[in-house]
Amino acid sequence: MIVTTALVLLSGGLDSAACAYVLKQQGLAVSGLFVDFGQASASREREASTAVAKTLGIDLTVRSIGPSYALGEGELSGRNALLISLGVFELGTRAGLVGIGVHAGTRYYDCSVPFIEAINQLVQEQTDSRVAVTAPFVTWTKTEVYRVFQESGLAVENTYSCEAGATPCGTCLSCQDRASLKC
Fold it and tell me: Is the pLDDT confidence value at 49 over 80?
């Protein structure tokens, strides 16, 4: 199967923006999917995703799902599995890739090579290999991803990565990750 399309899970952060950029550079027809699943940072992430999609010239689909209560900050178990499954669902009967901008160096299992390999196998089995998961940065450091982001021409100030959902808190893992870049 020749893959020509990619749906990128676009959170509005540096990593997902760089993922969309890389897949577009590879000649794929890229679109973005932003999911409001009740996360504290949903409104800020939606704004950033919209800005990134506009700059990259890609379509963005926005979906809202989730509990009737606000989710807390920090790690949300099952988040990336949920988002990848929603990406597969969004593709429907179309063939393509579901792209996710996870990178090495985090403590989250759903940002690891074993997770990406397992969920990719599951997705391919569910779709008769019509859809696959791609995580181009899963073995890269945040610094390596940031270098690609800088090449993209995207503006850092148009992205958002704090898990608190307000002015960057500086203490959550996403803020610490971003601060390490000195951007």
Answer: yes
> pTM for the complete prediction?
0.90
Question: What tokens were used for 45?
Answer: 């992430």
How many CA atoms, within 13 angstroms, populate the side-chain half-sphere of residue 39? Answer: 27
Q: What is the model's pLDDT at position 140?
A: 97
Q: Where are the domains of the chain?
A: 5-179
Contact 87, 3 (CB under 8 A): no
Supply the mean pLDDT for the chain: 90
CA separation for the pair 58, 159 (Å, rounded): 16
**Integer distance in angstroms from the first to the last C-alpha of the chain?**
40
Minimal CA–CA distance to 13: which of 106, 131, 121, 122? Answer: 106
CATH architecture of structural domain 5-179: 3-Layer(aba) Sandwich (3.40)
